[in-house]
Amino acid sequence: MPELPEITVIAKQMNKELKGKRIATIEEKQPKHLNMPIRKFIQTAKGKTVETVSSKGKWIFIKLQPAHYMLINLGMGAEILYYQSNQKTPENAQFKLAFTDKTGFTIHFWWFGYIHLIAQKDLAKHKFTPQLGISPTDKNFTSEHFKNLLAQKKTTIKTFLLDQKNLAGIGNVYVQDILFKAKLHPNRKIQTLTEKETEALYRAIQNVLNASIKLGGAAFELDFYGKKGKFTADNFLVGYKTGKPCPQCGTAVQKIRTGSTASYICPKCQPER
Length: 273
Ligand SMILES: [Zn+2]
Known about the structure:
With about 270 residues, this protein is an alpha+beta fold. About 25% of the residues lie in helices and about 20% in strands. The chain has helices at about 5-20, 40-45, 145-150, 155-160, 175-180, 195-215; strands spanning about 25-30, 50-55, 60-65, 70-75, 80-85, 95-100, 105-110, 115-120, 255-260, 260-265. A four-stranded antiparallel beta sheet has the order 1-6-7-5. Strands 2-3-4-8 form a four-stranded antiparallel beta sheet, with helices on one face. Helix 1 (about 5-20) packs across helix 6 (about 195-215). The longest helix has 20 residues, at about 195-215. The radius of gyration is 20 Å and the shape is elongated. Zinc ion binds near residues 246, 249 and 251. The site of zinc ion has 7 residues, from loops.
């Protein structure tokens, strides 16, 4: 499942390739991805020009001129791939968008996903994106901001980090090493965190996510050009490393159950208390 690093990388590549292009045609085999009937979707999108592409959490925001957004969420996973005018497009793609210069992109969803079209003035009324918390890579995400977010919260730290309303973009992949770097057990209650631990967690969030962005995202996901990211299993510290030695102390990494998700921890570096 793509998380913040993968979506950040794809959105940057989309921005580079699509800026200034005008939408010519759209084909969609699975209208359930859309937030309106397919005919209306095509009518609304056709002729509009891409102004910018950005991302927030796991959502891609394509800003269109005049005054619309195309919002894309890749769900449990998908390939969103750029194509040139002379290139064959993947047959399993459910969505295909072509620009007037004959380039475009296709999307093949593995399970579910969304492609929503919304007028700029209605963006605050969108079903999903207005509830998203701040992106941890946003320049406004300061340690002060993080402390304020944590205040009054009564859940465990892992539950907090995975809730997209608090911070947008962290999922069960990167959360493992974030907690390990901060030396926190996933079940630690937020109220028990010391000032020092909060600061360590703040830095760990940024370190882990930015390290993967620099490498182009996870190796099990494809970017906009169909290339795999360079963040491989070797780059994980404890994530998905059951039985392997902790890079800090050598203790065997354990896979434990935390609520509805699996967690990978070093029992010595991340004591439950
Ligand atoms: Zn350890």
